[in-house]
Design goal:
Elements: E1 4-8, H1 13-22, E2 29-31, H2 41-50, E3 53-56, H3 60-70, E4 77-80, E5 92-93, H4 102-108, E6 111-113, H5 117-131, E7 142-148, H6 153-161, E8 173-175, H7 185-191, E9 199-201, E10 203-205, E11 211-218, H8 228-238, E12 245-247, H9 250-253, E13 270-276, E14 282-289, H10 293-308
Parallel strand pairs: 1-2, 1-3, 3-4, 4-6, 5-6, 7-9, 7-10, 12-13
Antiparallel strand pairs: 7-11, 8-10, 11-14, 13-14
Helix pairs in contact: 1-10, 4-10, 5-7
Bound molecules: NADPH dihydro-nicotinamide-adenine-dinucleotide phosphate and N-acetyl-L-glutamyl 5-phosphate.
N-acetyl-L-glutamyl 5-phosphate binds next to loops.
């Protein structure tokens, strides 16, 4: 019998994209409730407890309630796409490529926390350099990023697309998270293996799906002898043997005049770049992804497939 999957929040931005990715799959059975009943707690509880895997695409508080609804039922495994459980040690962090053991942890887990979109890029760049001893303790890491507006869910989509919305946003590009306390900082710190929280400055552009995450570094303050080439080699070695996270060869990135935030729209992969001048003293590490692809829905489906393979 095909495993049963219930997407709680299936009519929201992340949920809809997961459903689209599952369309036509015969190896799983999708449980569903009508859009008008999406907040019907009794129906949701019933679906949640009849699923083999429940994928939660809800705000944090609703995710916590949903986990309560299934906590006593060991037959149900959970993938949560919210921020609620990402630094909870009882949950496997759903970024399979972040180190060699992570895919097996996800396969075996009952509870999997899908990463945030920005942390996917930031951790993808930082963690291999911490693990290789290139990025030393105490380094003042900064993370600057731009996201497509779908990252803000149904509410921000309406604000950006409907000029008559009472809180319409007309800016083509804006900074937010200005108090520097964005909810993704703990996750970047813990899973980036950082001993010091990064300064994180997010922004949104007037495009639906896409994301650029930048981590600029001074080579003089890294492990002795670190070069642009050695950083690239460490990233390339870390991500060898799979094709979801790729490290763009230096010979290719050197020839690029610009990086297009929407290049990977609709894709579930991530590209990493090392920019700078050979022999120079600085590099800019860049991650390119779709906030709803590897940054959310694509990662959730990848995690579901790993769990089903166990
Ligand atoms: N958008 C993105 O790029 C990313 C989103 N995420 C995370 O995914 C989760 C979902 O976000 P997103 O899809 O963007 O949000 P949306 O607002 O687009 O969708 C959320 C859905 O959940 C429903 N919902 C809200 N509260 C409840 C409740 N109490 N009970 C049942 N259903 C409820 C909403 O219904 P209603 O329409 O009635 O409000 C809506 O259908 C969030 O935790 C978000 O942080 C993670 C990574 C990236
Ligand atoms: C553009 C935008 O608003 N982005 C969201 C993050 C999207 C994401 O990764 O979702 P989680 O809430 O699940 O972490 C934000 O900054 O809150």
């Amino acid at each position: 019998m095909a495993p049963k999957i219930f997407i709680d929040g299936e009519h929201g931005t992340t949920g809809l994209q997961i459903r689209t990715r599952m369309a036509g799959r015969r190896d799983v059975e999708l449980l569903s409730i009508p859009e008008a009943e999406r907040r019907n707690a009794a129906m949701r509880e019933d679906m949640l407890n009849n699923a083999d895997i429940a994928i939660l695409c809800l705000p944090d508080d609703a995710s916590k309630e949903a986990v309560q609804m299934v906590s006593a039922n060991n037959n149900v495994r959970v993938i949560d796409t919210s921020t609620a459980f990402r630094v909870n040690p009882g949950w496997a962090y759903g970024f399979a490529e972040m180190d060699g053991a992570q895919a097996d942890k996800i396969k075996a887990a009952r509870f999997v926390a899908n990463p945030g979109c920005y942390p996917t890029g930031a951790i993808g760049l930082i963690r291999p350099l911490r693990a290789a001893g290139i990025l030393p303790d105490g380094y003042p890491v900064t993370v600057n990023a731009v996201s497509g507006y779908t990252g803000g869910g149904k509410q921000m989509i309406a604000q950006m697309e409907n000029p008559d919305h009472p809180d319409a946003i007309s800016a083509p590009h804006f900074l937010y998270g200005l108090p520097l306390t964005h909810k993704h900082v703990p996750e970047m710190t813990v899973h980036g293996l950082l001993d010091r929280a990064p300064i994180f400055s997010p922004s949104v552009g007037k495009f639906a799906q896409g994301m650029i995450v930048q981590v600029p570094l001074h080579l003089d303050d890294l492990a002795e002898g670190t070069t642009m080439e050695s950083i690239h080699a460490a990233l390339a070695a870390h991500y060898a043997g799979q094709d979801i996270v790729t490290v763009v060869p230096l010979s290719d990135s050197k020839a690029l005049p610009r990086v297009n935030a929407v290049e990977l729209e609709g894709k579930d992969t991530m590209k990493l770049f090392v920019f700078g001048t050979p022999g120079g003293s600085q590099v800019n590490l860049v991650a390119l992804l779709d906030n709803l692809g590897k940054g959310a829905s694509g990662a959730a489906v990848q995690n579901m497939d790993l769990m089903l393979a166990s």
